[in-house]
Automatic annotation (TrEMBL):
Any one GO BP annotation for this protein: glutathione biosynthetic process
Organism: Ephemeroptericola cinctiostellae
Listed GO MF terms: ATP binding; glutamate-cysteine ligase activity; metal ion binding
Record protein name field: Glutamate--cysteine ligase
Lineage of source species: Bacteria, Pseudomonadati, Pseudomonadota, Betaproteobacteria, Burkholderiales
Family annotation (Gene3D superfamilies): 3.30.590.20
Length: 532
């Protein structure tokens, strides 16, 4: 497949010496979720260790849904290699505090205790901390706790504002810089949704799961062993309807072509009552159990494979930030934990993500519609459940095409983007990553999902046996590489600072929580820029 006229033109434009350096000024950030487990691979249900700091205020170490589900957040860096180095440092510090516990190396959970025993994350008694906790109580009521224990990698990606300025000038766009940048990110997202099935094939790493996880839910999985269920050609059960699913969200955000469409749909969902949640109520015995009884409690409850984002200010809602200041970056949310990588993702993978996302940003991105949205969803669903099936067919513009053929064509289209990045970076890392991904398309047995399945089969067909053994290997490797004294001291200082900051928030706040949460909820209806 030939390179589109727009893509070729923009690549030539950005390859000019005056523009190429701006490619290095974008930002990359990585968020990694991981369960704390005991040496036997069972969930550790103790409180988040205070020695890791306050989860409300520590900038790099927090919790996601559960006290047992850690989340590590790197600063935004110009090079993903730097972000990965900092992610590695976080892991090494955390291991200095785990006292015999270890980090689960998989996206799908370990054997979980009863729902009642899975601890919801606690963020202290400040109003904002209680809001985060009540939100998670609502998630437990709506979806159950087990689903919230799934872990993943989030990859945050932005291009330099200088790049957008160059592209805006070249396009002859006379509008505001903020609007051009925001709508360009939305166009990037449209392309991402067209092609993200490829990421699931190349990087999906959850073809099997613990039988215990489904808690007697209906399913179409096959039995691999007494304790393990799987699908023989699956790539990412985490991203299938067995993982993140929410019937209340079906059709919630239809295919969108503008940031305004996205914000309006999301704002409506946070205001739209949902009968099943209304039946649960917001309080029980005087205690808040969910923020509201609407389709979404807050915007972040919307499960999406990618989101337009803007760094929010304290107490600010995500849609408020987007309305006020536009899109700053995109958050890719569909990446599985790679159990063979110590921090869950490799530098080689980030190099491909950078080339893939730049391709999505620079290439033609026609406006989308409902029919294409359904096709994109179906292609993604086929890739996560049957991605390695020989001659699996996808739908491209109404025509059948094999996943392998379309994937190889995309690799060819992305190649000149990788070449531009290599020219800027000096070397061949981006082209090398493309070569590895092409090999996976030609040899499905080289995909992470196939390697995971082979490793499970080598461990008696038991997901839990493989995952526990692999987690132990990685834990031992981290413990063998402790931070030096200076690095350790920096982390210790950040722990102390976070504890002090949280204590100050709790001691200086005014008003009661009921008033705080009512004010927070009322601001949803005041999103004037999102109202029709």
């Amino acid at each position: 497949m030939t390179t589109s006229v727009q893509l070729q033109h923009r690549l030539e434009l950005l390859s000019q010496p005056s523009n190429r350096n701006a490619l290095a000024q974008g930002l990359r950030g990585i968020e990694r979720e991981t369960l704390r487990v005991n040496a036997n691979g069972r969930l550790n249900v103790s409180s988040h260790p205070e020695t890791l700091g306050a989860t409300l205020t520590h900038p790099q170490i927090t919790t996601d849904y559960s006290e047992s589900l850690l989340e590590f957040i790197t600063p935004a860096e110009h090079n993903a290699a730097t972000a990965l180095k900092k992610l590695d440092d976080i892991h090494r510090f955390v291991y200095s505090k785990l006292d015999g516990q270890m980090l689960w190396s998989q996206s799908m959970p370990c054997v979980l205790p009863s729902e009642a025993e899975i601890p919801i994350a606690w963020y202290g008694t400040s109003h904002i901390g209680m809001l985060k906790h009540v939100y998670r109580r609502g998630l437990a009521l709506r979806y159950g706790k087990a689903m919230q224990c799934i872990a993943g990698i989030h990859y945050n990606y932005s291009l330099s504002e200088n790049i957008w300025a160059v592209l805006q000038k070249d396009a002859g766009d006379q509008g505001s810089a903020q609007n051009f940048q925001s709508e360009s990110y939305v166009a990037t997202i449209r392309n991402f949704l067209r092609y993200s099935w490829l990421l699931m094939y190349l990087f999906g790493a959850s073809p099997a799961l613990s039988k215990d996880f489904l808690r007697d839910r209906a399913h179409n999985l096959e039995q691999l062993s007494d304790d393990t269920l799987y699908l023989p050609y699956a790539t990412s059960l985490r991203m299938s309807d067995l993982g993140y699913q929410n019937n209340a969200q079906d059709g919630l955000v239809p295919p969108y072509n503008t940031l305004m469409e996205y914000m309006r749909n999301l704002s409506k969902a946070v205001r739209k009552p949902y009968p099943a949640y209304e039946a649960l109520g917001t309080k029980r015995d005087g205690e808040w159990v969910q923020i509201n009884t609407n389709v979404l409690q807050i915007e972040n409850e919307f499960y999406a494979t990618i989101r337009p984002k803007r760094v929010i200010r304290s107490g600010e809602r995500p849609v408020e930030a987007l309305c006020d200041r536009g899109v700053q970056y995109i958050e890719v949310r569909c990446m599985d934990i790679d159990p063979f990588e110590p921090v869950g993702i490799s530098l080689q993978t980030t190099r491909f993500l950078d080339a893939f996302l730049l391709f999505c940003a620079l290439n033609d991105s026609p406006l989308t519609h409902e029919a294409e949205g359904h096709a994109n969803t179906e292609n993604f669903a086929r890739a996560v459940k049957q991605g390695r099936r020989p001659d699996l067919m996808l739908n491209r513009n109404g025509q059948d095409i094999t996943l392998q053929a379309w994937g190889l064509e995309l690799i060819e289209q992305i190649a000149p983007v990788a070449a531009l990045l290599d020219a800027q970076d000096g070397g061949s890392a981006f082209a090398d990553s493309l070569a590895v991904q092409k090999d996976k398309l030609l040899h499905p047995e080289h995909t992470p999902s196939a390697r995971v399945l082979a490793a499970i089969q080598a461990n008696g067909g038991s997901f839990n046996a493989f995952a526990t053994a692999q987690s132990t290997v990685l834990a031992d490797a981290f413990r063998a590489r402790p931070l030096n004294a200076a690095q350790q001291a920096v982390f210790e200082q950040s722990v102390e600072a976070s504890l002090i900051e949280q204590a100050e928030m709790e001691s200086t706040q005014t008003g009661d929580f009921d008033g705080f949460i009512e004010d927070y909820r009322s601001r949803t209806s005041q999103q004037i820029c999102c109202d029709e």
